[in-house]
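Escalated from tier 1: glutathione holo job.
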Amino acid sequence: MLTIYGRANSINVRKVLWLCGEIGLPFEREDWGRGFKPTSEPTFHKVSAFGVVPVIDDDGFVLRESNTICRYLAAKHSRADIYPTDLKARATTEQWMDWAATDIYTAVRPVFLGLQVKMAPFKDDKAGIEAGIKEWTRQMQLLEIHLAKSGPYVCGAKFCLGDIPVGLIVNRWSTIAFEKPALPAISAYYERLTERPAYRQHGRNGTP
Ligand SMILES: N[C@@H](CCC(=O)N[C@@H](CS)C(=O)NCC(=O)O)C(=O)O
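Tier 2 regenerated the structure:
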């Protein structure tokens, strides 16, 4: 049995939940993290000492890092349709996963924690929030150009694993209130992803 440790409102846990929904993988989940049982508890440390969610236990195999977990599960269940075995197609998928976790997420984080969660010290860091909005917007404009030219999904014609982290950032972008430019290709992408039941359940579900 697959056990997922982590609260269902975490963007990183949602990557794994969406993937499981997408490929029909059964799992059990325990709520850990902000607002639930703290990951500083010794019980959690027995699973992972790193103190962040998600972590999975797949029949005794313990793994952390949301993108790695998604790649592991997709590969384990032979889902070459969304995680290609062709080297270049696979690298293209991974490129979007890495971008979503690094370049753009660095900008998303202070905005989400400051404006939405209102967590100290982010909530009082006006300059940090403004810089985050500016860079997040710039990164979204790059995504807009890419989707308009090479979409409709991040890897091209078909949905891929890269759409999972990117789709969750698009949902966060769309649900947090601040001034944004019109990005029609991203809006169309958001609607296209919404056709997927697992995205409606774990992505576009009202939670930023
Ligand atoms: N690089 C890690 C980041 C994990 C992470 O930062 N998780 C956040 C939730 S999105 C967390 O555990 N926060 C602490 C908490 O909820 O207690 C991953 O992708 O899995």
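The domain at 87-198 is CATH 1.20.1050.10 (Glutathione S-transferase Yfyf (Class Pi); Chain A, domain 2).
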